[in-house]
Amino acid sequence: MALIDKVLPGYVATLWMQEDVTPTPLTDSELAIWTAQVADIVGTTAGGAGTAGMQVPVEAIPAFGSDDASATYGIAGARTGAKITTQNQPTSMTITSAWNPADPAMLQIREDGYSGSIIRTYVVAVYDGTDTVAYAFNARVGGLQWDMAPSAEGKFHFTLHPVGGNAYGWSNNT
Amino acid sequence: MTTQNNPYVYAEAIQAQLASIVEVPVYANFNRNYATESQFLTWQLRNVHQPVYTGQTQSNKGIDTPTFQISIFSQSMSDAFNLSNDILQSLHGYSGQFGDQFFVAKADVFWLYNTYDNELGLNQIILDCTLYIPA
Description:
The complex is a heterodimer.
Chain A: E1 13-18, H1 34-41, E2 53-56, E3 70-73, E4 82-85, E5 93-98, H2 104-115, E6 120-127, E7 132-147, E8 155-162, E9 168-172
Antiparallel strand pairs in A: 1-2, 1-6, 3-4, 5-8, 6-7, 7-8, 7-9
Chain B: H1 7-21, E1 26-27, E2 39-46, E3 67-74, H2 77-91, E4 96-98, E5 102-104, E6 106-117, E7 122-132
Parallel strand pairs in B: 1-2
Antiparallel strand pairs in B: 2-3, 3-7, 4-5, 6-7
């Protein structure tokens, strides 16, 4: 299968996570390996195998990638300074779900947030009906909030904080 | 994760709930034959919609917030206002079983406007009611 070669609507994106209560997150190199690694976390509805993952129902996938950073310096007497780009950590993702108190993924995230120390592999899967591109990263959960404002369904907000500079990887089905 | 409710159930519930509030005829749509009656009301359902969220799972949706319009008709302006007030007092802020069909977390009524149809000789008052339904 080829890498997806088309422009996609935002609706194609889904969020998946390892389903074990105490998971063993993928290694930095495994985060970029589709077969038997990332594919096992992504469910069949998004082109994966789904043997070790479950879907997190979210309203929308927020912007993901890496934070911007640079080292800036100047030399006294020189007319211009300079910036050196530095590799920064993957972006934290603040996510909103329509809250269903019995949803197994939301319950697991609630437990992870209570623990504060569980590191779990999450995957953003982009699926065009045939092929899948996946952004996998290891993260802890923070910022659990439940928002029951009237005029809409109750919301469950949480933030996924990636654990390190290289703790992400891109892969696609092959 | 929600299922899409059947709008037919909404229709049944609206008819039953309105009929339980007022003692005048309740109809789903306007018919000129009704114009011979001194008082009646009609309703129309619209905006049945649950927001859909990302991904391939069809049930990744929010709640339904359907709105129905209530049109109160009366040959007497005072009767039209008082009949509308009965509905307003009964429905606005209501939480509980709706038309013996399902639970509504809240019913929210907007009084839109009153008007008069000279041809029919009927005062009209138009209300909107939005239902917030756990799903």
